[in-house]
Design brief:
The complex is a heterodimer of chains A (about 110) and B (about 120). By secondary structure, chain A is an all-beta fold. Chain A is built from no helices and twelve strands. Chain B has about 120 residues and is mainly beta. In chain B, strand 4 and strand 5 form a beta hairpin. Classes of the chains: A mainly beta (about 110), B mainly beta (about 120).
Chain lengths: ~110, ~120
């Protein structure tokens, strides 16, 4: 069965610090990969996604993620975080052709101190 | 453009009472529909998904059921709520099979408290 593991459950950073959130998945086939974000009081929204091609994908608000197939990883990065990045971040994966049945990680709460 | 709405946003119910959460999608046809439950520190758990009217797949055994009476309507129900049913429930949609990229679009969520 597919699974997703996010290593950091709660991260606290100061503004301008660099961010990397880890995500590993277990599935032997071809996958689509996603990062979703939930800002306080808002609904889940897509941050970025990888389907194929360049393994380095760029999303909204300066976020990027790199798919490393050999490591089954899809880590999220941002060079310099802002207070407004305070949110909960979810990594998700689905098997290609599996009609949107996303499997989510446990989530990482990011708190950015001004 | 497509929109998704679910209601009620907040619900407080006694143990043993029935439940009905409703979700509707506008601006698309034949979407795939999903119910997820979000628990703190446990991410999102897929409860049900549907690829068409009357077609429901259950991912985990539980006290809940789902129905899709119309193409763009998805309902989460229970006949008798348990304390363990408390949580934050999210409805989501994705494009149908032939167009699907796997991306989900989420509703605002419904927070259920069972007392």
């Amino acid at each position: 069965a597919q699974s997703v593991s996010q290593h950091n459950h709660h991260v606290i950073l100061s503004e301008a610090a660099s961010l990397e959130l880890g995500c590993n998945y277990s599935y032997g086939g071809t996958v689509n990969l996603f990062w979703y974000v939930q800002y306080p009081g808002q609904h889940l929204q897509l941050l970025l996604k990888y389907f194929s091609g360049d393994p380095l994908v760029k999303g909204i608000k300066g976020f990027e993620a790199e798919f490393i197939k050999s490591k089954f990883s899809f880590n999220l990065r941002k060079p310099s975080v802002q207070w407004s990045d305070t949110a909960e971040y979810f990594c998700a994966v689905n098997a290609q052709g599996n009609t949107g049945k996303l499997i989510f990680g446990q989530g990482t709460t990011l708190q950015v101190k001004p | 453009s497509q929109t998704i709405h679910q209601w009620p946003a907040t619900l407080v119910q006694p143990v043993g009472s029935p439940l009905s959460l409703e979700c509707t999608v506008e601006g698309t046809s034949n979407p795939n529909l999903y119910w997820y439950r979000q628990a703190a520190g446990r991410g999102l758990q897929l409860l049900f998904y549907s690829v068409g009217i009357g077609q429901i797949s259950s991912e985990v055994p539980q006290n809940l059921s789902a129905s899709r009476p119309q193409d763009r309507q998805f309902i989460l129900s229970s006949k008798k709520l348990l304390l363990s049913d408390s949580g934050f429930y999210l409805c989501a949609w994705s494009w149908g099979l032939t167009e699907s990229t796997g991306e989900l679009f989420f509703g605002e969520g419904s927070r259920l408290t069972v007392l």
